[in-house]
Design goal:
FAD/NAD(P)-binding domain; 2 domains; 26% helix
Length: 289
């Protein structure tokens, strides 16, 4: 059996259907071919976005690119379950800052001259001077999310959104060999339910973490929210800002503290309690990475 990668979803069609137009275009191209993809990446969050940027940067300078990338452009496809790029949207709270320095962005530590550094993003957005005057290494989370969205827009030609990957199966395309030389990636379009099979020589899986709800709390209850849902769902759960709600925030990490602080602004008449297991709040993570 020969792999038919072109039977899968078309990144170009998906980009056009979303109505995006972007003058910035990466060096990764969608290439129609009957061959398997060189690489399929499952998920298009910060990890695989950084991988896309690294591939772009390698193609920018052929002299430093691996020999494999010098012969022909790589056939790469990114599959993302969300309908558009998003990063921790449930925690994009006003005034909330990053825990890590902007220098640890998607490119700087690997290639400070990359187009995709946070500094270049600020320059392109005419915000470099303003950010410098803030005298901080910690940008607001809302701005950092916009930075990653700006980076992601470069790669729309090779990203297909609204695709849920159902399974990845190793395949042996060479007769008489026990070595896995190809993978079958089964993906379902979230809007239509259409299931397709794609083929790739290598697969990278970076789907991010999943919300974990402690067992005592009911799953799917409209008044019980995980922190990852907070900013997008709190208005439905508590629609009246003037009401005297009784709210409990369970947890002792940075997210819980930020939500606790935000609730006092959103619902000034409410009674909000922070419930923690330990004797004090956990300090903000300032580890090297």
């Amino acid at each position: 059996m020969s792999p038919h990668a072109h039977d899968g979803p078309s990144p170009t069609a998906q980009r056009q259907s979303n109505g995006h137009s972007n003058s910035n275009r990466s060096r990764l191209r969608h290439i129609d071919s009957d061959e398997a993809y060189d690489l399929i990446c499952v998920g298009f969050g910060p990890a695989n976005l950084a991988l896309a940027i690294a591939l772009h940067d390698a193609l920018e300078d052929p002299s430093t690119a691996p020999a494999r990338l010098r012969t022909r452009p790589p056939r790469v496809l990114f599959l993302e379950k969300q309908e558009q790029f998003g990063w921790h949207e449930g925690m994009l709270l006003p005034g909330a800052t990053m825990q890590i320095s902007f220098i640890k962005d998607l490119a700087t530590l690997r290639n400070p001259r990359s187009e995709f550094t946070f500094i270049n993003y600020l320059h392109r957005k005419n915000r470099l001077l303003q950010f410098t005057n803030l005298d901080t290494f910690l940008p607001q989370r809302i701005e950092y999310a916009d930075y990653m969205k700006w980076c992601a827009a470069w790669f729309e030609e090779v990203v297909v959104y609204g695709q849920e990957v159902l399974c990845v199966r190793p395949n042996n395309m060479s007769r008489g060999s026990s070595k896995t030389d190809c993978f079958q990636v089964e993906t379902k379009e979230t809007r239509t339910g259409t299931v397709r099979a794609l083929w790739a020589r290598d697969v990278v899986i970076a789907v991010g973490g999943r919300p974990s709800m402690p067992e005592p709390f009911p799953s799917g209850h409209p008044r019980v929210l995980h922190s990852s849902q907070f900013a997008s769902a709190i208005h439905k759960a508590l629609p009246d800002p003037s009401q005297n709600y009784r709210i409990a925030v369970v947890g002792g990490g940075q997210s819980a503290a930020e939500i606790f602080n935000d609730l006092h602004t959103r619902y000034p008449n409410s009674h909000t309690r922070l419930i923690i297991k330990s004797s004090a709040l956990k300090p903000s993570d300032d580890s090297p990475l």
